[in-house]
Amino acid sequence: MRKLFKQHTIAMVYDFDGTLSPQPMQEYTVLPELGVSPQAFWDECQREAKKYNADAMLTYMRLLTEKIEAKQTHLNKKKLRDLAKGIRYFPGVETWFDRINRHVRETSAGKIKIKHYIISAGLKEILEGIKIRKYFERMYASEYYFDHHDAARFPTVVINDTSKTQYIFRINKGIEDINQSINDYMPECERPIPFENMLYIGDGLTDVPCMTVTKNNGGFALAVYKPRNPQSLAVCRKLARANRIDYFAPADYRAGKTLEKRVKLILDVIMARIMFHREQFTFQRGIDRP
Ligand SMILES: [Mg+2]
């Protein structure tokens, strides 16, 4: 029998592009650096993916290295990280994590921990340089192999919408290092962050697999839309009608806004459940005591 109750950690898992930041990260960083118009780049990615019947993520990663080569520029790891300074965030994102962490700390009298994660199909090399980096326990994203000239040559990690779910299981089982096998059996009660303690936040159809995995296993999922953007709102409505999410809200992370209220409400439910499970755990261990 377990001696200690350990499932007292909450995980908030975020998509990045369109969720924390309005545009795909490449549009604030590599594309302007290369002088390439975002629309032209994404159109070309789509055409090429169709032409070669190729994975969309692998195609954009290939095209990016080709553009870098064609411009004869040197976009090494450090440069990509530095470019992340140009990324813009939705309002309130930069103060969001401190507010959320404080809410959990104060409500649980410090007994419950919260960890934040990013799972993104964007580039890890860019994410390493984001202003809000310090708030994340771990960031999972696509990565390049850099050769001896420090030039991006080939993908080492590719993350797309369905492979995103693998990282939800890694967080759930506490096997966060991608070199470790995820498939060994682990009983629910031994998993460091049960699905019930998870909240996934995304903005679109590419988040459906993660939303489904989280929600179907007892966790929560939420979608955000770009304020004053009917297309983005329509996507959220579609997700809500299909019961993929618990709520949607405008991507406005400022204090007192709808998103913060709904997230705090979900966190309160998760915290109450953790406290219930902890009490039950202590109770069950004492049943046969004299
Ligand atoms: Mg997104």
Write the layout of secondary structure elements.
Elements: E1 9-14, H1 30-34, H2 38-51, H3 56-70, H4 77-83, H5 93-107, E2 113-123, H6 124-127, E3 136-146, E4 152-157, H7 164-173, E5 198-202, H8 208-216, E6 220-225, H9 230-241, E7 247-250, H10 258-286
Parallel strand pairs: 1-2, 1-5, 2-3, 5-6, 6-7
Antiparallel strand pairs: 3-4
Helix pairs in contact: 2-3, 5-10
Bound molecules: magnesium ion.
Structure description:
The protein is an alpha/beta fold. It has one domain (9-23, 89-286): 3-Layer(aba) Sandwich (Rossmann fold). It is built from 10 helices and 7 strands. It has helices spanning 30-34, 38-51, 56-70, 77-83, 93-107, 124-127, 164-173, 208-216, 230-241, 258-286; strands at 9-14, 113-123, 136-146, 152-157, 198-202, 220-225, 247-250. It has a 7-stranded mixed sheet, sandwiched between helices. The longest helix is centred in the C-terminal third of the chain and has 29 residues, at 258-286. It is globular and about 80 Å long. It starts with 8 loop residues before the first strand and ends with a helix. The model has no long low-confidence stretch (mean pLDDT 95). Magnesium ion (MG) is lined by residues 15, 17-19, 202-204, 206.
The name of the CATH architecture is 3-Layer(aba) Sandwich
Q: Give the beta-strand count.
A: 7
Strand order in the largest sheet: 4-3-2-1-5-6-7
Form type: globular
Mean pLDDT over all positions: 95
Bound molecules: magnesium ion
User: What fraction strand?
Assistant: 15-25%
How many distinct helices? 10
End-to-end separation in angstroms reads 18 Å
Q: Work out the count of structural domains.
A: 1
Structural class: alpha/beta
The biggest beta sheet reads: 7 strands, mixed
Which residue ranges are poorly predicted, with pLDDT under 50 across at least 5 consecutive positions? none
